[in-house]
Amino acid sequence: MTAATRVLVLNSGSSSLKYQLIDMAGPVPGARRPARGVVERIGEPGSGVADHAAALRTVGEELAAAGHGLDSPGLLAVGHRAVHGGTRFTGPTLVDNGVLAEMEKLVPLAPLHNPANIAGIRVARDLRPDLPQVAVFDTAFHATLPEHAWRYALDPAVADAHAIRRYGFHGTSHAYVSRAAAELLGRDPAGPGGFNVIVLHLGNGASASAVAGGRCVETSMGMTPLEGLVMGTRSGDLDPAVIFHLAREAGMATDAIDTLLNKRSGLVGLCGDNDMREIGRRIAEGDERARLAFDVYVHRIRKYVGAYTAVLGRVDALAFTAGVGENSAAVRAAALRGLEGLGVELDPVRNALRGSGPRVVSTPGSAVAVAVVPTDEELEIATQTRDLVGERGLSLPPPQ
Ligand code: AMP
């Protein structure tokens, strides 16, 4: 009999379904990924992919064409990316009807994301009711935040009645990168003395986290992913009174303000582009708006590095990840310029070298190591799924 060692990782968005088939066998789990891809434009007119069930059938066909159909005995489990776990889900969770019902209750906190995640889980379960389905939540890694970090300074009666608190997101990435940074530097994340790292996840969405001894103690996203750093299209931190002002003075409706802050702000709002490569090209041509957008973006990162240095007390490493963090030497250099007083000394030559793996970009003498650590959320989901399910698989109750 073939040992079941592969995890199918599904990331269901409202209009796309991304998948990776990851083999967890061998000396380097995840080194073999027999299939990966994305089904796009789900539910759009003329796309031919009516819904998530149709999208998963397409995935099944693509997997079969790669010789690893959904009916393959080598499949151990399906690991699902799930966005909002609220306070209910603080770790990877084996999905049953009760879990799906709890996830439904969290929809008001993530109205765009959670329904798509739930749809993805349902269709995968319908196709393979015998397989364990595991949900890995974006919020889970931040469940260790102390109350003084997660609580907003609001009347607790009001806040608690409406589940208003800081949850944090990108947790799967922060978990993976904080551990990989410790490994890169030859440190045990939770070993004696602890390993303290600030992770800067700078993609189209962006967030920072402070991780002490493997536990997240502070993070920049809040009740929703809108808080914190300047992002591709989100404003990040803002005086909440801006919203009242827009409503009263500009006559904007709530949904219009929501769209403005989530979709038309950040880099795109400041300069019309959210791709850091394009912004770099425009700056090289002397474009002032692009320059200002870059400056606002890196200034916010510096503020968080300073704040999280104070939160941690002692920082062993800064780890840059995601599209901008991994690729933009200019952002890393500008964000850390002049931070020698905090023990941070970037090596300009190492920083400018392009590379694909985890690497150190600080000087040998830098008290705080600066690392570039490519994130791998799919591998993290597959690892957490495999660890929960166990190598031989769980014995499941009869299909519900
Ligand atoms: P992610 O959300 O992690 O996929 O990151 C996407 C973002 O990474 C894009 O919007 C770009 O701004 C940025 N990015 C990707 N490649 C590069 C690059 N080579 N240099 C600078 N920024 C990049």
Q: How many runs of DSSP E, i.e. beta strands? A: 12
CATH fold description of the largest domain:
Nucleotidyltransferase, domain 5
Distance between the termini: 27 Å
Low-confidence stretches: none
Strand line-up in the sheet with most strands: 3-2-1-4-6-5
Work out the helix count. 15
Task: Write down the secondary-structure element order.
Answer: EEEHEEHHEHHHEEEHHHHHEHHHEEH
Which architecture of the largest domain does the CATH hierarchy give at level 2?
A: 2-Layer Sandwich
Strand content: 15-25%
User: How many structural domains can be distinguished in the coordinates?
Assistant: 2
What is the oligomeric state here? single chain
Query: Quick one: overall form?
Result: globular
CATH domain class of the largest domain: Alpha Beta
Helix/strand/pairing category: alpha/beta
- Sheet with the most strands? 6 strands, mixed
Q: Helix content range of the residues, please?
A: 25-40%
Q: Radius of gyration over alpha carbons?
A: 22 Å
Bound molecules: adenosine monophosphate
The CATH superfamily label of the largest domain reads ATPase, nucleotide binding domain
Task: Give an overview of the whole structure.
The protein is of the alpha/beta class. The chain has two domains: 6-137, ATPase, nucleotide binding domain (Nucleotidyltransferase, domain 5, 2-Layer Sandwich); 188-376, Nucleotidyltransferase, domain 5 (2-Layer Sandwich), CATH 3.30.420.40. The chain is built from 15 helices and twelve strands. It has helices at residues 52-65, 97-105, 114-127, 147-150, 156-161, 171-184, 241-249, 254-263, 266-271, 276-284, 288-312, 322-327, 329-336, 348-352, 377-389; strands spanning 6-12, 17-23, 32-39, 75-82, 93-94, 133-137, 196-202, 206-212, 215-219, 317-321, 359-360, 369-372. It has a six-stranded mixed beta sheet with strand order 3-2-1-4-6-5, with helices on both faces. Strands 9-8-7-10-12-11 form a six-stranded mixed beta sheet, sandwiched between helices. Helix 10 (276-284) packs across helix 11 (288-312). The two termini are 27 Å apart. Bound molecules: adenosine monophosphate. Adenosine monophosphate binds at residues 203-204, 232, 274-277, 322-324, 327-328. Catalyzes the formation of acetyl phosphate from acetate and ATP. Can also catalyze the reverse reaction. This is Acetate kinase. Belongs to the acetokinase family.
